[in-house]
Sequence to fold (792 residues):
Amino acid sequence: MKTDPKPPQHTPYGGAKAHSYTATHWGIYEVRYREGEAVALEGFARDPSPSPIGLGMLDAVKGPLRVQRPAVRRNWLAAARGETTDAQRGLRGQEEFVEVSWDEALDLVAGELQRVRQAHGNTAIFGGSYGWSSAGRFHHAQSQVHRFLNSVGGYVRHADSYSLGAARVLMPHIVAPMDEMHTLHTSWSVLEKHTTLFVSFGGVPAKNAQVSSGGVGEHVVPQALRRLDKAGVKFINISPVRNDIDTGGEVEWIPIRPNTDAALILALACTLYQEGLHDPAFLAQHCVGFDKVHPYLTGATDGIVKDAKWAANITGIPAERIVALARAMAANRTMLTMAWSLQRSHHGEQPFWSLVTLASMLGQIGLPGGGFGVGYGTTNMIGNANAKFSGPTLPQGKNAVREFIPVSRITDMLEKPGETFDYNGEKHRYPDIRLIYWAGGNPFHHHQDLNRMLGAWQSKPETIIVNEQFWTPAAKLADIVLPATTGLERNDIGYASRERFMVAMKQAMDPVGEARDDYDIFTALAERMGAREVFTEGMNSFQWLEKLYEQSRERATRAGLSLPPFDEFWQGDLLDLSVENKDVVMFQDFRSDPVAHPLNTPSGRIELFSERIAGFAYADCPGQAQWFEPVEWLGSSKAVAHPLHLLTDQPFTKLHSQYDHAAYSAGNKIGGREPITLARTDAHARGLAEGDLVRVFNDRGACLAAVRLSDDIHTGVAKLSTGAWFDPSGWRASGAGNLEKHGNPNVLTLDIGASSLSQGCIAQTCLVQVERYQGTAPQMSAYALPQMMVQV
Ligand SMILES: Nc1nc2c(c(=O)[nH]1)N[C@H]1C(S)=C(S)[C@@H](COP(=O)(O)OP(=O)(O)OC[C@H]3O[C@@H](n4cnc5c(=O)[nH]c(N)nc54)[C@H](O)[C@@H]3O)O[C@H]1N2
Ligand SMILES: Nc1nc2c(c(=O)[nH]1)N[C@H]1C(S)=C(S)[C@@H](COP(=O)(O)OP(=O)(O)OC[C@H]3O[C@@H](n4cnc5c(=O)[nH]c(N)nc54)[C@H](O)[C@@H]3O)O[C@H]1N2
Ligand SMILES: [Mo]
Fold:
């Protein structure tokens, strides 16, 4: 069977080629060749701040951690061959793998999919398969697996994301869907001209703006912040961490207790109201529900005045500072921005809803440089104003299965088949999953309370199939692992929303080992399951590239942008999509005429009170922004045993867990363990010094990490960035008794939904204790290859 003939005419690499480009989520890189072999990646010359993350990638791509051949877990294979009983299924993670031929592996996977479909229906297949995959619009693994599963009868899908679990559900009810909001944000150029006060909740971290889904060509955030500073904008950063913003100039830091921002913002709103500094005209013409907001602020509804004194007790910020801040906001052209991390918390809807409420009371929404943003700095896309059109996207087909879960309810689903759960005003049931197929994500990176998930992983699914490039923890914990190519080993198109460049990502090297493109893997499986035509539409990958490009070109034309035909694009390497006028003002039309340009909310206006959400009657998410105590925070009684609030932010050295094993990420570790940032006073109180090995623990889990001292973090707060590959001391779930040896914070985080409304991930709500690690430290083994058995 011939699945993917090499593209005609286009010699992708070798011979005279001196360079080509590749796109990653963290940047465009130039591939350097020596004698036809790709030898290095260099930062893109037209990028003012190329990310160092990509520079060492090539070594990792060629390195020992690649999955070389299809591999099947020993006991799973024995059971499939009828050599053992089902009861002897063995233990995922700790067992040897048997390397098998592609034909045998594909037969096994197709056969198992068929068996599960016939015995239990497609609702027994979880293809939620969340994850960022690689850049490149066609070989986007998550889209590929979804399209494939749809072609064979469907799968249980996931809704929403880990990024924006609470916001994706909340925001369409009250303002606009997050996907729309992303590209609407007021551009940096406008902020530079008009904003006088810029207030960030959670900073504007340039480390995060290294990234945009699909591929950054031009990193704009570091320069934009510098220009704003030079233009005289006053910056205030409200955050538990001082250095999550760098403007090159002065930034006032207001340290806040984690997860208390909603209380602060409600107190700012209360101050505006008490002092008559709010904008009644804007509230009347553009919003609904202020009549429900002010009685809550003044305490008329519950006897508690949400004033600065009240918030001071919760947030740790002096009342006078809160009052002065409210006045300054009203006196300036003020842009308020909030990092996405704030909604990744218990009751994570409330900080976003409070922000919208405060911005509405200030009445500057739709004015140049005023209003609010959600996520300046969170990715390079926000505030970036290049051409806007829908880029090349692989259609995923139609899913015949209706069942789904909110993405971070995966362990609940595995543990509680048949039980009901609340979500966005509806009740749903968890399906009974027998088979999990994952491509392009790492659940043992992204999910919370990994010990709990490990238990469910070991006991519930009969089969777990993973397409992976590397021997990640998710691959080690699978039954069948199929080796996938990286972006350097295939042709693709790099494009991200509002980015400046579209990139012809030409194949730079032969696939490592026997790795295949996900597309070819799924084509071969579809063939075995009688769905080849549906899945491929008769096209090889290169034909798909042309088709997806041409479709996107049509959409660009409709958006007033003229792109060249495919061949010209492919030969030319790069398209520049910059536009002359970069001045975008969010909600400008709505502001000027809310009747002619209504929002897509039930009232057409900003909903400070939502009848619809109120109608759901959720005690944990009522019809308007309110302060709720999170289940764990510094003000709770649980802080006695576990007195540190753990922030698990995005790592500056990588994207999630991707390329954790590459040099740049490795260079930031201390003795091979992930660093945990502690306030100097907190470290001294525990007798800890820089570099000390510590045990970080709570009732859910424990991990090792190495101390990094800081004066830039609130006392009582610790920060352990995500991304260290999960390295448990045992493959059975045993809570804090199972020591994670590398510094993966998700053994500590809490796995409950943000609220009944969204069920979003709440990774930032977590208390821990830290102590010196006693005894001889166990060896870190996250990068050890699983044992391989030779086929007999
Ligand atoms: N504690 C805590 N946890 C968090 C967060 C947090 O803030 N705190 N953040 C959350 C957020 S916002 C997110 S988005 C998630 C991210 O979670 P994920 O997106 O799952 O994390 P990645 O490490 O990007 O996983 C991508 C995987 O896909 C593989 N891959 C890449 N390209 C390909 C390909 O072409 N084919 C195949 N088959 N595989 C490929 C990579 O090797 C890697 O293992 O994490 C979440 N988890
Ligand atoms: N380099 C790199 N960049 C990335 C990613 C990556 O993995 N690596 N991931 C990308 C993805 S998928 C996403 S979704 C985005 C995520 O973007 P975010 O969710 O915004 O990122 P985080 O780094 O988790 O948090 C940003 C800041 O919020 C602050 N913060 C945390 N909790 C609180 C709080 O309770 N109150 C206040 N005021 N501040 C708080 C922290 O100090 C932190 O510096 O990042 C993207 N960018
Ligand atoms: Mo994310």
